[in-house]
Design goal:
The protein has a nine-stranded antiparallel beta sheet with strand order 4-3-2-1-9-8-7-6-5, with no helix packed on it. The protein has an eight-stranded antiparallel β-barrel with strand order 10-11-12-13-14-15-16-17. The chain contains no helices and 17 strands. 0% of the residues lie in helices and 54% in strands. It has a single domain, classed as Lipocalin (Beta Barrel), CATH 2.40.128.20.
Length: 265
């Protein structure tokens, strides 16, 4: 009896197989942060961290206050300009390659949202990426005044959006509610595959959103910042390649097109 089907995990490709070609429409990394020193004051007593961006690809961070005070390290990073004064920052921790760091940085409002993704083993051969969000002010917050957070949003609910990552890769996203979306591959190595995943959405600025998800079948995390004024998205995939056992992290970008908008009463 035939039991195969696209719902079986055997049809899902390892994350390493998806990387080739995904960067076709990705811009060059931005050098605008080079030479800047930024101090992030994290919410909920999570500490104070100073970042020094030396050039277009290297930075150091140092914890000035909080539970990990004194910790410091250097990293190779990539920053992509999402809009004027707004950046998508990505790096893998040198000392903890199972941990990914992304920063949605807005120098216009001096705010940032950190997304820490950690690859964790849940069972003998089962992994997933655990996500943690931290919000920060870049200037010291006033005494007694809470940090103005990038807020969760429902702005995207009901939208069906086509993302073209390359001449070979096209996906549609259907944003179902404030924590679920469906993806469907229209062209590329995953053509015909689709699934519904957990998703988090934050509004960074007018028409600019931070969107992240983690997948059930493939142990990976996706993070994008989408600028609906430019109809462009910039992001990354991070996770475990189940074929090679290697941790994979690659950045990408796409052109976006809103296909339909469903309004719910």
């Amino acid at each position: 009896m035939e039991t195969g089907g696209l719902d079986n995990a055997e049809y899902w490709l390892p994350i390493g197989s998806l990387e080739p070609g995904f960067n076709e429409y990705k811009p060059e990394p931005s050098a605008e942060l080079a030479g800047k020193e930024l101090t992030f004051y994290l919410e909920k007593d999570n500490g104070v961290v100073k970042y020094m961006f030396y050039d277009v690809s290297s930075l150091t961070w140092e914890v000035l206050d909080g539970p990990q005070i004194g910790a410091t390290d250097g990293e190779s990073y990539e920053a992509i300009l999402v809009g004027p004064g707004i950046y998508f920052i990505d790096f893998i921790k040198q000392s903890q390659p199972e941990q990914s760091v992304n920063i949605a940085l807005d120098l216009n409002t001096m705010r940032a949202t950190f997304l820490i993704g950690t690859l964790v083993q849940e069972a003998k051969s089962t992994y997933r990426v655990k996500q943690e969000f931290l919000h920060a002010a870049i200037n010291p917050p006033s005494p007694g005044k809470p940090i103005a957070l990038h807020e969760r949003t429902t702005d995207l609910v009901g939208k069906r959006v086509l993302y073209t990552y390359s001449s070979q890769h096209r996906y549609e996203h259907i944003y179902l509610n404030d924590h679920r979306y469906t993806w469907h591959c229209l062209a590329g190595p995953e053509k015909g595959l689709a699934d519904t995943e957990h998703m988090d959405y934050f509004k960074i600025a007018d028409d600019i959103y931070l969107i992240s998800w983690w997948e059930k079948v493939v142990p990976c995390q996706g993070v994008v910042m989408t600028n609906y004024k430019l109809m462009r998205s910039f992001g990354k995939l991070f996770g475990l390649d189940t074929e090679t056992g290697k941790i994979i992290n690659f950045t990408m970008a796409s052109y976006a097109k809103i296909l339909t908008v469903t309004k719910y009463e």
